[in-house]
Amino acid sequence: MKISLDKVPCLYEECGVNANPANTNHPTGQSPDREAAREERRLRRIAVLEQVCDLNVRAAERLGKYIGGELSEFESQPFARLADPFTALTRLSQSIRRIVALQERLDEDDETREKRLKAERAERERAIQAREAERRREAAADAYEDKKETIRRAVRNSHRDAEPDMALADRESLLDDLFRDYEDHFDYSGDPARIVAELCAEVGLKYVPPEDEDDDDGASPEDRAKAGRLRLAEDYLNALRPSEPPRAAANGHDPP
Fold first, then answer.
1. Domain hosting residue 22, numbered range
2. Fewest Cβ atoms closer than 10 Å to its Cβ: which of 108, 114, 131, 184?
3. Does residue 167 lie in a domain region?
4. d(CA 38, CA 31)
5. Predicted confidence (pLDDT) per residue in 16-58, tens digit
6. For residue 26, how far is the Cα from the chain centroid?
C-alpha cells in the first residue's frame, strides 16, 4: 500500500523541529549590488537545503527506532498513523540521497563560481594595473613635453638677449633648424641646463664673463666658458620655473 506524503510531516513534528525550512529566519535586506544580492540568495538556498537534509536524517533515525521497537508507547503514537512505515523510511532515504547529490552538485558549482570570481578579480586587477601604467606613461610623456618646451624657451630667450637685433623670422628659422637637428640625434632626457648650454654653444652664442669674475682659478678659458654657459643656462631655466606661492605665517595670517 502506498503511503500519502501528507502524513510524512508528522515525523518532523515528532522530532520536535520546524517542518517548513522556509520559515527559518534569514536576512531579507536586499543589497543594491546585484552580485551581493545573488550571493545572499545562494546562501539562503544552501541553508534551506542543509536544514531539509537534517530534518530528513533525524526523521529517518526516529522512524528506524520505531520500526525496531525502541520507542516508548507515547513516542510511537505519531508513527502509528503510517500505513507502511517501511515505505516511509524508503522514501526518506531516497530524499536524503537526492539532497546529498544536490549538495555535492552545489559544491561543484561553488568551485566553478569561485574560479569565475577569481578570474574576474584577476581581470579587474589587470585592468587597474593597466590604467595605472597608462596614467604613468601619460604623466611621463607630459613631463617630457613640458621639459622639452622649457628648454626650447630658455634657448630662445638666451638667443634673443644675445642677438637682440636679429629679425624674428631669421631667429625662428635658425632655432627651428637647431632643434630639428638636435632631435634627430638626441633627446631631452638629460640635464636641462647642460642641454640648453650645448644648444647655445651649437648656435654660436658666446659667453661673456662678468668683470668681477675670478679668472685666476687655474681653469682653462674653454672650461671657464663652458661653466659660464652652464650657469647662464640655469639662470634662464630658473626664470621660467613657476614661483612658489608665499607661505602662510604661523598664526594663520598672510605674511607681511
1. 5-132
2. 184
3. yes
4. 9
5. 444 444 444 444 444 457 777 777 877 887 888 788 888 888 8
6. 32
